[in-house]
Amino acid sequence: MTETDTTLLTTALDALHRSLGARMVPFAGYAMPVQYPTGILTEHTWTRENAGLFDVSHMGQVTLRGKNGADPAVALERLVPGDLQILKMGRMRYTMLTQADGGILDDLMVTKLEDRLFVVVNAGCKTQDIARFRAELTDCEVLEHTDAALLALQGPKAVDVLKALVPGVEILAFLSGAAFTWNSTALFITRSGYTGEDGFEISVPNTAAEALAQALLAHEAVKPIGLGARDSLRLEAGLCLYGHDITEATSPIEADLAWTISKRRRAEGGFPGDAVIQAQLVGGPARRRVGIQPEGRAPVREGAKIYADAGLTEALGVITSGGFGPTVQGPVAMGYVAASHIAPGRTLFIDLRGKPVPATVAPLPFTPHRYVR
Amino acid sequence: MSTVKSTVKFTADHEWVQITGNLARVGITQYAQEQLGDVVFVELPAVGATFAQGKEAAVVESVKAASDIYAPLSGTVAAVNDGLPDNPSLVNTDPQGDGWFFEITLSNPSELDGLMDETAYQAHTGA
Lengths: 373, 127
Description:
The structure holds 2 protein chains of 2 kinds. Among the domains of chain A are: 3-59 and 147-236, Probable tRNA modification gtpase trme, domain 1 (Gyrase A, domain 2); 286-362, Aminomethyltransferase beta-barrel domains (Elongation Factor Tu (Ef-tu), domain 3, Beta Barrel). Chain A has 9 helices and 19 strands. Chain A has helices at 14-19, 40-49, 72-76, 126-136, 158-165, 206-217, 227-236, 263-268, 274-283, and strands spanning 23-27, 30-35, 51-55, 60-66, 92-98, 104-113, 116-121, 140-144, 148-154, 177-182, 185-190, 199-205, 222-224, 287-294, 305-307, 315-325, 330-338, 347-352, 355-362. A 6-stranded mixed β-sheet of chain A has the order 10-11-12-9-3-13. In chain A, strands 14-17-16-15-18-19 form a 6-stranded antiparallel barrel. Chain A has a 5-stranded antiparallel β-sheet with strand order 5-6-7-4-8. The radius of gyration of chain A is 21 Å and the shape is globular. Chain B is α+β, with helices and mostly antiparallel strands. Chain B has one domain (6-109): CATH 2.40.50.100. In chain B, the strands form 2 sheets. Chain B has a 6-stranded antiparallel β-sheet with strand order 1-2-3-9-8-5. Chain B has a 3-stranded antiparallel β-sheet with strand order 4-6-7. In chain B, strand 2 and strand 3 (23-28) form a beta hairpin. The radius of gyration of chain B is 14 Å and the shape is globular. Chains A and B meet through helix 2 and helix 7 of A and strand 4 and strand 6 of B.
Protein backbone atom coordinates (compact mmCIF):
# COMPACT_ATOMS: atom_id res chain seq x y z
CA MET A 1 0.00 0.00 0.00
CA THR A 2 1.29 3.44 -0.82
CA GLU A 3 0.14 6.42 1.15
CA THR A 4 -1.53 7.89 -1.95
CA ASP A 5 -4.03 5.01 -1.82
CA THR A 6 -6.01 6.89 0.78
CA THR A 7 -6.75 9.66 -1.70
CA LEU A 8 -7.65 7.40 -4.62
CA LEU A 9 -11.18 6.85 -5.79
CA THR A 10 -12.41 3.27 -5.95
CA THR A 11 -14.81 1.48 -8.27
CA ALA A 12 -17.72 -0.67 -7.18
CA LEU A 13 -15.52 -3.73 -7.79
CA ASP A 14 -12.67 -2.63 -5.51
CA ALA A 15 -13.27 -5.31 -2.86
CA LEU A 16 -13.64 -7.97 -5.56
CA HIS A 17 -10.32 -7.01 -7.18
CA ARG A 18 -8.53 -7.23 -3.85
CA SER A 19 -10.15 -10.58 -3.01
CA LEU A 20 -8.95 -11.91 -6.39
CA GLY A 21 -5.39 -10.93 -5.49
CA ALA A 22 -5.10 -8.02 -7.92
CA ARG A 23 -2.13 -5.70 -7.78
CA MET A 24 -3.79 -2.32 -7.45
CA VAL A 25 -2.16 0.78 -8.93
CA PRO A 26 -3.18 4.43 -9.18
CA PHE A 27 -4.65 5.19 -12.60
CA ALA A 28 -6.41 8.46 -13.49
CA GLY A 29 -7.14 9.05 -9.82
CA TYR A 30 -8.57 5.57 -9.23
CA ALA A 31 -7.18 2.47 -7.55
CA MET A 32 -7.31 -0.02 -10.44
CA PRO A 33 -6.10 -3.60 -10.97
CA VAL A 34 -3.02 -3.70 -13.22
CA GLN A 35 -2.85 -7.49 -13.08
CA TYR A 36 -4.10 -10.52 -11.18
CA PRO A 37 -1.83 -13.29 -9.85
CA THR A 38 -1.64 -15.18 -13.17
CA GLY A 39 0.12 -12.22 -14.79
CA ILE A 40 -0.24 -10.07 -17.89
CA LEU A 41 0.91 -12.64 -20.48
CA THR A 42 -1.63 -15.22 -19.33
CA GLU A 43 -4.41 -12.63 -19.04
CA HIS A 44 -3.68 -11.35 -22.54
CA THR A 45 -3.71 -14.80 -24.13
CA TRP A 46 -6.79 -15.83 -22.15
CA THR A 47 -8.71 -12.87 -23.56
CA ARG A 48 -7.69 -13.70 -27.14
CA GLU A 49 -8.79 -17.34 -26.69
CA ASN A 50 -11.63 -17.25 -24.14
CA ALA A 51 -13.28 -14.31 -22.38
CA GLY A 52 -11.73 -11.65 -20.17
CA LEU A 53 -13.62 -9.48 -17.67
CA PHE A 54 -12.33 -5.91 -17.30
CA ASP A 55 -13.43 -3.27 -14.82
CA VAL A 56 -13.55 -0.01 -16.75
CA SER A 57 -15.77 1.81 -14.26
CA HIS A 58 -13.21 4.63 -14.01
CA MET A 59 -14.34 5.81 -17.44
CA GLY A 60 -16.97 8.52 -17.63
CA GLN A 61 -20.51 7.55 -18.64
CA VAL A 62 -22.63 10.49 -19.75
CA THR A 63 -26.11 10.97 -21.20
CA LEU A 64 -26.77 13.99 -23.41
CA ARG A 65 -30.48 14.74 -23.81
CA GLY A 66 -31.75 17.55 -26.05
CA LYS A 67 -33.78 20.31 -24.36
CA ASN A 68 -37.02 21.51 -25.97
CA GLY A 69 -36.76 19.11 -28.86
CA ALA A 70 -33.13 19.88 -29.66
CA ASP A 71 -31.29 16.99 -31.33
CA PRO A 72 -28.32 16.01 -29.14
CA ALA A 73 -26.56 14.59 -32.23
CA VAL A 74 -26.65 18.02 -33.88
CA ALA A 75 -25.44 19.57 -30.62
CA LEU A 76 -22.51 17.21 -30.02
CA GLU A 77 -21.37 17.56 -33.64
CA ARG A 78 -20.32 21.11 -32.67
CA LEU A 79 -17.53 19.51 -30.59
CA VAL A 80 -16.52 16.44 -32.63
CA PRO A 81 -15.74 15.70 -36.31
CA GLY A 82 -17.67 12.41 -36.26
CA ASP A 83 -20.98 12.07 -38.14
CA LEU A 84 -23.57 11.58 -35.40
CA GLN A 85 -26.66 12.65 -37.34
CA ILE A 86 -26.30 9.66 -39.64
CA LEU A 87 -26.45 7.22 -36.71
CA LYS A 88 -29.51 4.99 -36.61
CA MET A 89 -31.18 4.06 -33.34
CA GLY A 90 -28.89 2.00 -31.14
CA ARG A 91 -25.84 2.49 -33.34
CA MET A 92 -22.50 3.55 -31.95
CA ARG A 93 -19.59 5.59 -33.27
CA TYR A 94 -15.98 6.35 -32.34
CA THR A 95 -15.04 10.02 -32.51
CA MET A 96 -12.97 12.61 -30.68
CA LEU A 97 -13.32 15.99 -29.02
CA THR A 98 -11.14 18.46 -30.92
CA GLN A 99 -9.80 21.93 -30.16
CA ALA A 100 -9.28 25.01 -32.34
CA ASP A 101 -5.84 23.95 -33.62
CA GLY A 102 -7.14 20.47 -34.55
CA GLY A 103 -5.60 18.78 -31.49
CA ILE A 104 -7.50 16.02 -29.72
CA LEU A 105 -8.92 16.69 -26.23
CA ASP A 106 -10.27 13.15 -25.76
CA ASP A 107 -11.62 10.21 -27.74
CA LEU A 108 -15.06 8.84 -27.04
CA MET A 109 -17.74 6.33 -27.98
CA VAL A 110 -21.20 7.72 -28.76
CA THR A 111 -24.37 5.61 -28.93
CA LYS A 112 -27.59 7.05 -30.36
CA LEU A 113 -30.76 6.29 -28.41
CA GLU A 114 -34.34 7.57 -28.81
CA ASP A 115 -34.02 11.09 -27.47
CA ARG A 116 -30.47 11.03 -26.24
CA LEU A 117 -26.84 10.07 -26.76
CA PHE A 118 -24.94 7.75 -24.42
CA VAL A 119 -21.29 8.78 -24.32
CA VAL A 120 -18.27 7.04 -22.78
CA VAL A 121 -15.16 9.16 -22.23
CA ASN A 122 -11.71 8.55 -20.75
CA ALA A 123 -11.26 8.57 -16.98
CA GLY A 124 -8.43 11.09 -17.07
CA CYS A 125 -10.45 13.53 -19.20
CA LYS A 126 -13.96 13.11 -17.85
CA THR A 127 -14.00 16.11 -15.53
CA GLN A 128 -12.91 18.49 -18.31
CA ASP A 129 -15.12 16.76 -20.89
CA ILE A 130 -18.24 17.07 -18.77
CA ALA A 131 -17.44 20.71 -17.95
CA ARG A 132 -17.07 21.29 -21.68
CA PHE A 133 -20.40 19.60 -22.45
CA ARG A 134 -22.12 21.76 -19.82
CA ALA A 135 -20.52 24.95 -21.13
CA GLU A 136 -20.90 24.30 -24.87
CA LEU A 137 -24.01 22.13 -25.13
CA THR A 138 -26.46 24.49 -23.46
CA ASP A 139 -29.24 22.95 -25.57
CA CYS A 140 -28.66 19.59 -23.84
CA GLU A 141 -29.08 18.16 -20.39
CA VAL A 142 -25.78 16.60 -19.32
CA LEU A 143 -26.11 13.70 -16.91
CA GLU A 144 -23.06 11.87 -15.58
CA HIS A 145 -23.82 8.31 -14.47
CA THR A 146 -21.76 8.23 -11.29
CA ASP A 147 -24.13 5.55 -9.99
CA ALA A 148 -23.10 3.04 -12.67
CA ALA A 149 -20.11 0.74 -13.10
CA LEU A 150 -18.81 -0.30 -16.52
CA LEU A 151 -17.66 -3.86 -17.18
CA ALA A 152 -16.11 -5.11 -20.40
CA LEU A 153 -16.36 -8.76 -21.39
CA GLN A 154 -14.00 -9.39 -24.29
CA GLY A 155 -12.93 -12.38 -26.32
CA PRO A 156 -14.29 -15.05 -28.67
CA LYS A 157 -16.31 -16.72 -25.89
CA ALA A 158 -17.80 -13.46 -24.55
CA VAL A 159 -21.03 -13.82 -26.51
CA ASP A 160 -21.77 -17.35 -25.28
CA VAL A 161 -21.01 -16.40 -21.69
CA LEU A 162 -23.12 -13.25 -21.71
CA LYS A 163 -26.13 -14.64 -23.58
CA ALA A 164 -26.49 -17.34 -20.91
CA LEU A 165 -27.04 -14.56 -18.35
CA VAL A 166 -28.66 -11.96 -20.58
CA PRO A 167 -30.55 -13.63 -23.44
CA GLY A 168 -30.74 -11.47 -26.55
CA VAL A 169 -27.30 -9.86 -26.41
CA GLU A 170 -26.19 -12.21 -29.17
CA ILE A 171 -28.27 -10.31 -31.73
CA LEU A 172 -26.48 -7.01 -31.09
CA ALA A 173 -24.39 -6.07 -34.12
CA PHE A 174 -20.83 -4.77 -33.68
CA LEU A 175 -20.99 -1.12 -32.57
CA SER A 176 -24.58 -1.13 -31.41
CA GLY A 177 -26.21 -1.07 -28.01
CA ALA A 178 -29.52 -1.64 -26.23
CA ALA A 179 -31.13 -1.90 -22.80
CA PHE A 180 -31.38 -5.35 -21.18
CA THR A 181 -32.43 -6.75 -17.82
CA TRP A 182 -30.52 -9.14 -15.58
CA ASN A 183 -31.96 -10.27 -12.23
CA SER A 184 -34.42 -7.35 -12.47
CA THR A 185 -31.44 -4.99 -12.83
CA ALA A 186 -31.43 -2.63 -15.80
CA LEU A 187 -28.29 -2.93 -17.93
CA PHE A 188 -27.16 -0.98 -20.97
CA ILE A 189 -25.00 -3.18 -23.17
CA THR A 190 -23.01 -2.32 -26.28
CA ARG A 191 -21.16 -4.72 -28.55
CA SER A 192 -17.81 -2.96 -28.48
CA GLY A 193 -14.48 -2.98 -26.75
CA TYR A 194 -10.80 -2.16 -26.75
CA THR A 195 -9.09 -5.46 -27.48
CA GLY A 196 -9.72 -6.16 -31.18
CA GLU A 197 -11.88 -9.12 -30.15
CA ASP A 198 -15.64 -9.57 -30.16
CA GLY A 199 -17.08 -8.42 -26.88
CA PHE A 200 -19.40 -6.24 -24.85
CA GLU A 201 -19.34 -3.26 -22.53
CA ILE A 202 -21.96 -3.44 -19.81
CA SER A 203 -23.20 -0.44 -17.85
CA VAL A 204 -24.62 -1.72 -14.56
CA PRO A 205 -25.75 0.08 -11.39
CA ASN A 206 -22.96 0.15 -8.78
CA THR A 207 -25.24 -1.72 -6.39
CA ALA A 208 -25.42 -4.74 -8.74
CA ALA A 209 -21.94 -4.55 -10.27
CA GLU A 210 -20.18 -7.01 -8.00
CA ALA A 211 -22.99 -9.56 -8.28
CA LEU A 212 -22.87 -9.33 -12.08
CA ALA A 213 -19.08 -9.60 -12.12
CA GLN A 214 -19.27 -12.67 -9.85
CA ALA A 215 -21.92 -14.24 -12.11
CA LEU A 216 -19.67 -13.71 -15.15
CA LEU A 217 -16.55 -14.96 -13.34
CA ALA A 218 -18.44 -18.09 -12.31
CA HIS A 219 -18.27 -19.21 -15.94
CA GLU A 220 -15.20 -21.36 -16.62
CA ALA A 221 -14.39 -19.36 -19.78
CA VAL A 222 -14.04 -16.07 -17.86
CA LYS A 223 -11.03 -14.71 -15.97
CA PRO A 224 -10.50 -11.18 -14.57
CA ILE A 225 -8.09 -9.09 -16.65
CA GLY A 226 -6.18 -6.02 -15.50
CA LEU A 227 -5.05 -2.79 -17.11
CA GLY A 228 -1.71 -4.32 -18.10
CA ALA A 229 -3.25 -6.80 -20.52
CA ARG A 230 -5.83 -4.21 -21.58
CA ASP A 231 -2.88 -2.12 -22.80
CA SER A 232 -1.08 -4.95 -24.64
CA LEU A 233 -4.38 -6.10 -26.22
CA ARG A 234 -5.27 -2.63 -27.52
CA LEU A 235 -1.72 -2.03 -28.76
CA GLU A 236 -1.75 -5.24 -30.82
CA ALA A 237 -5.19 -4.17 -32.10
CA GLY A 238 -3.69 -0.84 -33.23
CA LEU A 239 -6.07 1.19 -31.05
CA CYS A 240 -5.04 4.60 -29.72
CA LEU A 241 -4.52 5.34 -26.04
CA TYR A 242 -5.44 8.92 -25.15
CA GLY A 243 -2.58 10.89 -23.63
CA HIS A 244 -0.06 8.75 -25.50
CA ASP A 245 -0.96 8.04 -29.16
CA ILE A 246 -3.39 10.94 -29.36
CA THR A 247 -3.10 14.20 -27.43
CA GLU A 248 -3.84 17.91 -27.72
CA ALA A 249 -0.72 18.06 -29.93
CA THR A 250 -1.99 15.51 -32.51
CA SER A 251 -4.85 15.97 -34.96
CA PRO A 252 -7.21 13.17 -36.01
CA ILE A 253 -5.58 13.18 -39.45
CA GLU A 254 -2.06 12.92 -38.07
CA ALA A 255 -3.39 10.11 -35.85
CA ASP A 256 -4.61 8.21 -38.96
CA LEU A 257 -8.20 8.59 -37.78
CA ALA A 258 -9.49 10.26 -40.98
CA TRP A 259 -11.77 7.21 -41.42
CA THR A 260 -13.85 8.51 -38.50
CA ILE A 261 -14.82 11.67 -40.44
CA SER A 262 -17.60 11.31 -43.02
CA LYS A 263 -17.80 13.02 -46.40
CA ARG A 264 -20.49 15.38 -45.07
CA ARG A 265 -18.46 16.45 -42.05
CA ARG A 266 -15.32 16.91 -44.17
CA ALA A 267 -17.26 19.16 -46.51
CA GLU A 268 -19.29 21.08 -43.93
CA GLY A 269 -16.83 21.38 -41.05
CA GLY A 270 -18.53 22.94 -38.05
CA PHE A 271 -16.30 21.42 -35.35
CA PRO A 272 -13.31 22.87 -33.46
CA GLY A 273 -10.20 22.82 -35.64
CA ASP A 274 -12.20 22.18 -38.82
CA ALA A 275 -10.01 24.43 -41.00
CA VAL A 276 -6.80 22.72 -39.88
CA ILE A 277 -8.29 19.25 -40.26
CA GLN A 278 -9.81 20.00 -43.69
CA ALA A 279 -6.43 21.32 -44.90
CA GLN A 280 -4.67 18.17 -43.66
CA LEU A 281 -7.27 16.00 -45.40
CA VAL A 282 -6.48 17.74 -48.69
CA GLY A 283 -2.72 18.24 -48.41
CA GLY A 284 -1.83 15.32 -46.18
CA PRO A 285 -0.31 15.74 -42.70
CA ALA A 286 3.41 16.34 -42.28
CA ARG A 287 3.61 13.32 -39.97
CA ARG A 288 1.36 10.38 -39.24
CA ARG A 289 0.80 7.64 -36.70
CA VAL A 290 1.96 4.25 -37.99
CA GLY A 291 2.47 0.74 -36.70
CA ILE A 292 6.12 -0.11 -36.07
CA GLN A 293 7.56 -3.61 -35.92
CA PRO A 294 11.03 -3.59 -34.33
CA GLU A 295 13.47 -6.33 -35.36
CA GLY A 296 14.66 -8.74 -32.72
CA ARG A 297 13.19 -9.22 -29.28
CA ALA A 298 13.85 -5.94 -27.50
CA PRO A 299 10.71 -3.88 -26.82
CA VAL A 300 10.91 -0.20 -27.73
CA ARG A 301 8.97 2.03 -25.37
CA GLU A 302 7.02 5.27 -25.45
CA GLY A 303 9.36 8.23 -25.90
CA ALA A 304 12.02 6.39 -27.94
CA LYS A 305 13.16 8.49 -30.90
CA ILE A 306 12.75 7.29 -34.49
CA TYR A 307 15.39 7.95 -37.18
CA ALA A 308 15.85 7.30 -40.91
CA ASP A 309 19.41 6.08 -40.53
CA ALA A 310 21.39 3.69 -38.36
CA GLY A 311 23.62 6.58 -37.35
CA LEU A 312 20.61 8.10 -35.57
CA THR A 313 21.10 11.52 -37.17
CA GLU A 314 18.01 12.08 -39.38
CA ALA A 315 15.11 12.37 -36.90
CA LEU A 316 11.69 11.20 -38.11
CA GLY A 317 9.56 11.09 -34.98
CA VAL A 318 8.86 9.33 -31.71
CA ILE A 319 7.32 6.12 -30.34
CA THR A 320 4.01 6.80 -28.55
CA SER A 321 3.16 3.24 -27.44
CA GLY A 322 5.46 0.27 -27.39
CA GLY A 323 5.93 -3.00 -25.65
CA PHE A 324 5.82 -6.74 -26.01
CA GLY A 325 2.91 -8.22 -27.94
CA PRO A 326 2.07 -11.57 -26.34
CA THR A 327 0.02 -12.75 -29.35
CA VAL A 328 2.57 -11.43 -31.86
CA GLN A 329 5.26 -13.00 -29.63
CA GLY A 330 7.53 -10.03 -30.13
CA PRO A 331 7.88 -6.30 -29.77
CA VAL A 332 5.18 -4.05 -31.25
CA ALA A 333 4.89 -0.27 -31.26
CA MET A 334 3.10 2.74 -32.68
CA GLY A 335 4.54 6.16 -33.26
CA TYR A 336 4.55 9.30 -35.35
CA VAL A 337 6.90 9.52 -38.34
CA ALA A 338 7.46 12.08 -41.07
CA ALA A 339 5.17 11.68 -44.10
CA SER A 340 8.16 10.57 -46.21
CA HIS A 341 8.41 7.35 -44.19
CA ILE A 342 4.82 6.20 -43.54
CA ALA A 343 4.55 3.54 -46.26
CA PRO A 344 4.33 -0.01 -44.88
CA GLY A 345 7.67 -1.73 -45.27
CA ARG A 346 9.78 1.41 -44.85
CA THR A 347 12.85 0.83 -42.71
CA LEU A 348 13.26 2.95 -39.58
CA PHE A 349 15.78 2.94 -36.75
CA ILE A 350 14.78 3.35 -33.14
CA ASP A 351 17.17 4.77 -30.55
CA LEU A 352 17.15 2.09 -27.85
CA ARG A 353 19.51 3.06 -25.03
CA GLY A 354 21.78 4.75 -27.57
CA LYS A 355 21.85 1.85 -30.04
CA PRO A 356 19.95 1.73 -33.37
CA VAL A 357 17.27 -0.96 -33.51
CA PRO A 358 16.08 -1.58 -37.10
CA ALA A 359 12.30 -1.54 -37.47
CA THR A 360 9.70 -1.58 -40.23
CA VAL A 361 6.54 0.45 -40.75
CA ALA A 362 3.83 -2.18 -40.26
CA PRO A 363 0.17 -2.19 -41.22
CA LEU A 364 -2.19 -1.93 -38.24
CA PRO A 365 -3.58 -3.90 -36.52
CA PHE A 366 -0.76 -6.30 -35.58
CA THR A 367 -3.37 -8.97 -34.78
CA PRO A 368 -6.46 -9.17 -37.02
CA HIS A 369 -9.63 -7.66 -35.57
CA ARG A 370 -12.23 -10.35 -34.94
CA TYR A 371 -15.29 -8.19 -34.53
CA VAL A 372 -18.69 -9.70 -35.33
CA ARG A 373 -20.08 -7.82 -38.31
CA MET B 1 37.70 -31.51 -6.47
CA SER B 2 37.20 -29.74 -3.20
CA THR B 3 34.00 -27.86 -2.54
CA VAL B 4 34.43 -24.11 -2.31
CA LYS B 5 31.96 -22.59 0.10
CA SER B 6 29.77 -19.91 -1.40
CA THR B 7 27.74 -17.23 0.33
CA VAL B 8 24.72 -15.31 -0.92
CA LYS B 9 24.29 -11.59 -0.36
CA PHE B 10 21.72 -9.05 -1.51
CA THR B 11 21.55 -5.45 -2.71
CA ALA B 12 18.99 -2.77 -1.97
CA ASP B 13 18.04 -2.98 -5.68
CA HIS B 14 16.79 -6.56 -5.18
CA GLU B 15 19.70 -8.36 -6.77
CA TRP B 16 21.30 -11.46 -5.27
CA VAL B 17 25.02 -12.16 -5.44
CA GLN B 18 26.39 -15.64 -4.93
CA ILE B 19 30.08 -15.31 -4.04
CA THR B 20 32.41 -18.21 -4.61
CA GLY B 21 36.03 -17.23 -4.03
CA ASN B 22 36.63 -14.19 -6.21
CA LEU B 23 33.64 -14.83 -8.49
CA ALA B 24 30.16 -13.35 -8.01
CA ARG B 25 27.12 -14.75 -9.81
CA VAL B 26 24.33 -12.13 -10.12
CA GLY B 27 20.58 -12.35 -10.54
CA ILE B 28 17.38 -10.76 -9.28
CA THR B 29 15.44 -11.91 -6.25
CA GLN B 30 12.09 -13.66 -6.02
CA TYR B 31 10.69 -10.39 -4.67
CA ALA B 32 12.02 -8.49 -7.70
CA GLN B 33 10.58 -10.92 -10.25
CA GLU B 34 7.18 -10.72 -8.54
CA GLN B 35 7.30 -6.94 -8.75
CA LEU B 36 8.39 -6.98 -12.41
CA GLY B 37 5.83 -9.48 -13.62
CA ASP B 38 6.27 -11.50 -16.80
CA VAL B 39 9.80 -10.98 -18.15
CA VAL B 40 9.90 -10.84 -21.96
CA PHE B 41 13.42 -9.60 -22.74
CA VAL B 42 16.88 -9.71 -21.20
CA GLU B 43 19.99 -7.92 -22.46
CA LEU B 44 23.27 -9.20 -21.01
CA PRO B 45 26.70 -7.54 -20.92
CA ALA B 46 29.63 -8.74 -23.03
CA VAL B 47 32.08 -11.15 -21.43
CA GLY B 48 35.18 -9.13 -20.60
CA ALA B 49 33.30 -5.89 -19.99
CA THR B 50 34.26 -4.11 -16.79
CA PHE B 51 31.84 -2.32 -14.51
CA ALA B 52 32.16 -0.14 -11.46
CA GLN B 53 29.81 -0.98 -8.60
CA GLY B 54 26.35 0.48 -9.21
CA LYS B 55 26.71 0.93 -13.00
CA GLU B 56 24.07 -0.41 -15.42
CA ALA B 57 25.26 -3.82 -16.56
CA ALA B 58 22.14 -5.50 -18.00
CA VAL B 59 18.50 -4.79 -18.84
CA VAL B 60 15.42 -6.79 -17.94
CA GLU B 61 12.05 -5.95 -19.49
CA SER B 62 8.61 -7.07 -18.42
CA VAL B 63 5.49 -6.57 -20.52
CA LYS B 64 5.04 -3.21 -18.82
CA ALA B 65 8.49 -1.70 -18.40
CA ALA B 66 12.26 -1.84 -18.72
CA SER B 67 14.52 -2.04 -15.65
CA ASP B 68 18.27 -1.77 -15.31
CA ILE B 69 20.35 -4.44 -13.62
CA TYR B 70 23.26 -2.79 -11.82
CA ALA B 71 26.67 -4.30 -11.24
CA PRO B 72 26.39 -5.10 -7.53
CA LEU B 73 30.18 -5.15 -7.21
CA SER B 74 33.05 -3.78 -9.30
CA GLY B 75 34.78 -6.21 -11.62
CA THR B 76 35.00 -7.89 -15.02
CA VAL B 77 32.27 -10.01 -16.56
CA ALA B 78 33.59 -13.58 -16.58
CA ALA B 79 30.47 -15.34 -17.94
CA VAL B 80 26.86 -14.68 -18.91
CA ASN B 81 23.80 -16.93 -18.85
CA ASP B 82 23.68 -17.59 -22.61
CA GLY B 83 20.32 -19.35 -22.46
CA LEU B 84 18.53 -16.44 -20.83
CA PRO B 85 17.90 -14.14 -23.85
CA ASP B 86 16.07 -16.97 -25.65
CA ASN B 87 14.16 -17.98 -22.53
CA PRO B 88 13.66 -14.82 -20.45
CA SER B 89 10.80 -16.38 -18.48
CA LEU B 90 13.48 -18.26 -16.47
CA VAL B 91 13.78 -15.00 -14.53
CA ASN B 92 10.21 -15.57 -13.34
CA THR B 93 10.26 -19.33 -12.87
CA ASP B 94 13.71 -19.70 -11.25
CA PRO B 95 15.07 -16.25 -10.41
CA GLN B 96 17.62 -17.45 -7.87
CA GLY B 97 18.71 -20.49 -9.92
CA ASP B 98 18.60 -20.94 -13.72
CA GLY B 99 17.49 -17.33 -14.15
CA TRP B 100 20.92 -15.89 -13.20
CA PHE B 101 22.29 -13.06 -15.37
CA PHE B 102 26.10 -12.90 -15.30
CA GLU B 103 29.23 -13.61 -13.28
CA ILE B 104 31.78 -11.00 -12.29
CA THR B 105 35.40 -11.46 -11.26
CA LEU B 106 35.68 -9.06 -8.36
CA SER B 107 38.19 -6.23 -8.52
CA ASN B 108 37.41 -4.88 -5.06
CA PRO B 109 36.21 -7.66 -2.73
CA SER B 110 35.96 -5.19 0.18
CA GLU B 111 32.72 -3.95 -1.45
CA LEU B 112 31.12 -7.19 -0.21
CA ASP B 113 30.93 -5.67 3.25
CA GLY B 114 28.31 -3.21 1.99
CA LEU B 115 25.86 -5.91 0.85
CA MET B 116 23.05 -7.35 2.95
CA ASP B 117 22.76 -10.87 4.29
CA GLU B 118 19.47 -12.69 3.90
CA THR B 119 18.05 -11.51 7.23
CA ALA B 120 18.82 -7.88 6.44
CA TYR B 121 17.36 -8.30 2.94
CA GLN B 122 14.13 -9.81 4.26
CA ALA B 123 13.82 -6.80 6.54
CA HIS B 124 14.51 -4.53 3.54
CA THR B 125 11.57 -6.02 1.59
CA GLY B 126 9.34 -5.93 4.63
CA ALA B 127 8.86 -9.71 4.49
